[in-house]
């Protein structure tokens, strides 16, 4: 599964599992800071992205996040 993109990448977050579904931290590639997380949202039965306060994303980053979440929902 693809986890690395142009400006961001995702790593498995062992403490964020929900209902047996893995969770992932989103980090920027330059400074390796956590900028958000992808977790399974049981009410919707799909993965969601929650960006950290103060983080901004352009359309390219959002497209990469959407692509990654699509891989998780398969």
Outline the structure in words:
The chain is α+β, with helices and mostly antiparallel strands and 74 residues long. The protein has one domain. It is built from 1 helix and 4 strands. A 4-stranded antiparallel beta sheet has the order 1-2-3-4, with helices on one face. The mean pLDDT is 94.
The low-confidence parts are: none
Main pleated-sheet profile: 4 strands, antiparallel
Distance between the termini: 11 Å
Structural class: alpha+beta
Radius of gyration, Cα only, in angstroms?
Answer: 12 Å
Q: What number of structural domains do the residues give?
A: 1
Helix content: 10-25%
What is the compact description of this entry?
This protein is an alpha+beta fold and 74 residues long. The protein has one domain (8-73).
Tags for this entry?
4-stranded antiparallel beta sheet; alpha+beta; 1 helix; globular
Question: What layout of secondary structure does this protein have?
Answer:
Elements: E1 8-18, E2 21-28, E3 34-41, E4 46-51, H1 59-73
Antiparallel strand pairs: 1-2, 2-3, 3-4
